[in-house]
Amino acid sequence: MKKKILIIGKKSFISFNLVKDLKNIFNINTVSIESFFKLNNKTLSSFDCIINCAISKSYVNKKYQKNYDFDYKIAFKIKNFDILYIFLSTRKVYKLGNNLKETLKTNPQCNYSKNKLITEQKLLELLKNKILILRISNIIGICKNNNRKIHNTFIYQFFSNIKNKFIYDNKKNYKDFLSTSQFAKIVEQLIKNKSHGIFNVSIGKKVYLKELINWLNYYNERKYQYIKLPSNFERKNFYLNNSKLIKETKLRISLTKLKKDCKIISKLYFKK
User: Fold this and answer.
1) pLDDT tens by residue, 143-196
2) Residues in Cβ contact with 237 at an 8 Å cutoff, skipping those fewer than 6 apart
3) Helix (H), strand (E) at residue 210
4) Where are the beta strands (DSSP E) in the chain?
5) Which residues are within 8 A (CB) of 256 and not within 5 positions of it... i.e. 6 or more apart?
6) What angle do CA 267, 202, 132 make, to 5 degrees?
7) Contact at 8 Å (CB) between 209 and 173?
8) Most Cβ neighbours (<10 Å): which of 43, 77, 107, 242?
C-alpha cells in the first residue's frame, strides 16, 4: 500500500515540484495552511507523513514569535499521532564555508535562519524521533508561478535578470545546488526509510555559478550581456557535506544529473 503524504502549502515552489515528482510514488494530498488547521483527528491520523511548505512573511523577516511559526503549530497539533513530520530548514543556519557538516556549530546571521534554528530545537523536543529536519541548499526548478518571488532565491534572480537581458559575470563564485527532481528523490527515499534527525540536503560539492548559468541558458536564443558584479557584492560561497545523507539513502547525487535537469528547465522556460 502506498504511503499517504500530506503536503501543506499549495502555492509553494517546493510543494508544486514535490507533488509533480512524487504523485506516482505516494498517495499525495495537498492543503493550504488554513485548511490544515480545520482537519479533524481522524483525518490527521490517516497520514504517514506531513511536509509543510507554507511560511509566514513575518517568520522570514522578523524576530521569532510562536504565532509566526507554522511548523511549531502543526507539530503541536500532530504530536500524539504516529506521523513523520518533515521540516524544511536551511543551510543558512551555518556560517559560510566548505564541507559544512551537521555537527558543525551553527551560526545563523539573519532572522530567517535564526528562526529556522529555533524551530528545529522546538520540533526536536516536541516530536523526538518523529521529526526529520532537512537543512536544504539552493534548489533549482520551475514553478507554475514563475514570476512569484520566493525568498529572493538564485533561480528567482536568474529568471528576473534574464528578462532584463543581462547576467552577472560570477567568475569563480560557487554554491551548493540541487534540482527539484533530485530533491524529490531524496525526500522519497528518506520517507521510505522512515528516517529521522537532521540531514544536509545538497549535492555536496562546489557548483560554479558560471557553469550553472550556462546550463540554464542552454536553450536561450535571446540576446543578453554579461555585466560585472557590483563592487560591494557579497560572495556567499559554500557547500555542504552530504555524507550522512548518502549513507542514509544510498543515493548517487551527481553533478551530471543537475546539469541534465538544468537543461530541461532551460527548455521548458525558453521554448514555451
Assistant:
1) 665 444 445 677 777 777 777 777 777 778 899 999 999 999 999 999 999 999
2) 96, 98, 173, 174, 175, 206
3) helix 209-216
4) 4-8, 27-31, 49-52, 84-90, 131-136, 138-140, 166-168, 174-175, 177-179, 197-201, 207-208, 225-227
5) none
6) 120
7) yes
8) 242
Unique residue bearing C-alpha cell 504530536: 79
Percent of the chain with pLDDT over 70: 92
Report the alpha-carbon distance of residue 180 to residue 189 in Å, rounded: 14
Q: CA-CA distance, 224 to 217, in Å (whole number)?
A: 10
Q: How far apart are CA 17 and CA 65, in angstroms?
A: 29
Grouping H, G, I as helix, E, B as strand and the rest as coil, residue 6 is: strand
| The 84-90 sheet, strands edge to edge | 27-31, 4-8, 49-52, 84-90, 131-136, 197-201
Query: Crossing angle of helices 111-127/70-78, nearest 10°?
Result: 10
Cα(171)–Cα(178) distance, integer angstroms:
20
| Apex 66 CA angle, 63 and 68, nearest 5 | 65
What pLDDT digit, counting tens, does each position of 70-120 carry? Answer: 999 999 999 999 999 999 999 999 999 999 999 999 999 999 999 999 999
Three cell numbers, residue 11: 502555492
**C-alpha grid cell for residue 94?**
551555518
The single residue listed with the C-alpha cell 562546489 is 206
Question: d(Cα 141, Cα 99) in Å, to the nearest integer?
Answer: 24
